[in-house]
Amino acid sequence: MAVRPIVKLPEAKLRLKSEPVGPVTEEVRRLSADMLDTMYDAPGIGLAAIQIGVPKRLVVIDLARSDEERQPMVFVDPEIVWSSDEKRVHEEGCLSIPEFYEEVERPDRVTVRFRDLDGEMRELEADGMLATCLQHEIDHLNGVLFIDHLSRLKRSRVIKKFEKAARRESEDA
Ligand code: ZN
Q: Where are the domains of the chain?
């Protein structure tokens, strides 16, 4: 198991559409363990494989507070099969867009179909924070970032800011 570098805005990889994982092999289990290590190290509450540069439809989430026992959840090939008409606004952040937070409106409840690490097909009905987090991570699998849900002005402002920071870093290097 290992902490891997996180892909950050404006890296083009974040816009890739990830491929299905397929059979849950030992390699998939190792990848999900690395994703959890990377997420806990950051620290964050959710991570999609593309955020460590692997374009596979794999998501990890843990919403436990720091004073609670860890509750790692792994979603293989997750798919939203139902979402509520009612919406919910939640402040979101992203390990690929560090230190930027904005309110995003999404469906309040979703049903997600996925496989677990034993390859078993499962369905989960989620609300609140888990619903928000699942939608945010599943967006990543389609190359969509939470800033895409903001106004065009806000989005272009944050993208410019990160492009500028990346340029500065490469000039310093
Ligand atoms: Zn994210």
A: 12-172
Q: Ligand 1 centre and the CA of 14: distance in Å?
A: 10
Ligand 1 centroid to 13 CA: how many Å? 13
Site of tokens 């049903």: 111
Does this model's pTM top 0.70? My answer is yes
- For the chain, the average pLDDT equals 96
CATH 2.60.120.10 describes domain 12-172: no
Supply the pLDDT for residue 170.
87
d(CA 9, CA 117): 29
CA distance 152 to 57: 27
* Catalytic annotation, residues: 137
Residues with CB under 5 A from ligand 1 (ion): 94
